[in-house]
Amino acid sequence: MSQMTKDTPGVMTPRGRATRARIVGAAADLIYCRGLRNTTLKDVRAAADVSGSQVTHYFEDKNALVRGVIAWRRDELVSLHTKGKLTRLDSFQALQDWADVNVQFQVDNECIGGCIFGSLVAELLPPDEGVRADLTAVYDEWIALLRTALAAMRTRGELRPDADPRHLARVLVAAHQGGSQLTQTSGSVKPLQDALNAAVQYVCSFATEPAAITKQRVSVRRRAR
């Protein structure tokens, strides 16, 4: 994914990479909590504890910093789908676990910020062509991760031959994004929970045998209703 920066991580010193990461991480957190329009470069400098010259050394303008944030969120998204509990998504139970993890994330965050990537997309619409290409690339990669898992299930005979992994992957991502937006708007975890459970059940409808999954009762705490 291309980034409009004055320097590239590949030629930076470890200290430079750490400084750049601190700037991008601070910007990502501020945009998530406040929104892009309410986040200034001055805010980012203060949160990252860096000077203005350090910001401009790594990012020629706010647009370049935003593209850095997109890449940051992409890395978080991929990490969620490739490490820990969600290392493998190629089973019906793993897909339900994926749904439960995403629901619990919203419960833990009191349904305030929405999806860390989807909320960023909403802030950037309508994007310029460079930003649009970056956003599209992340969605394509997200769908591809799920498609690969679903294709493995079809190859093993767990999904019927007529199951289209790309279609099913798009359904899962679309349910996540739509449900996250409604959950953020309403302050209730139910829209996301219902959307993801319905999407997983749709995948299960293509099972060669009845899919046995154990739905976890997500603990609804604090503001989530």
Protein architecture, described:
This protein has two domains: about 10-70, Orthogonal Bundle (Arc Repressor Mutant, subunit A); about 85-205, Tetracycline Repressor, domain 2. It contains nine helices and no strands. It has helices spanning about 15-35, 40-50, 50-60, 60-80, 90-110, 120-125, 130-155, 165-185, 190-205. α5 runs antiparallel to α9. The two termini are about 40 Å apart.
Quickly describe the structure.
The chain is an all-alpha fold and 225 residues long. 64% of the residues lie in helices and 0% in strands.
Fold topology:
Blueprint (H helix, E strand, L loop, with lengths): L13 H21 L6 H8 L3 H7 L3 H21 L9 H17 L9 H7 L4 H27 L9 H22 L3 H15 L21
Helix pairs in contact: 1-2, 1-4, 4-7, 5-9, 7-8, 8-9
Total helical elements: 9
CATH superfamily of the largest domain: Tetracycline Repressor, domain 2
Q: Indicate the radius of gyration in whole angstroms.
A: 19 Å
Strand content: under 5%
Following the backbone from N to C, one meets helices and strands in this order, namely HHHHHHHHH
Structural class: mainly alpha
Q: What sort of overall outline do the alpha carbons produce when their principal axes are compared?
A: elongated
State the main characteristics.
225 residues, mainly alpha, Arc Repressor Mutant, subunit A, Tetracycline Repressor, domain 2, 2 domains, 9 helices, 0% strand, elongated, disordered N terminus, disordered C terminus
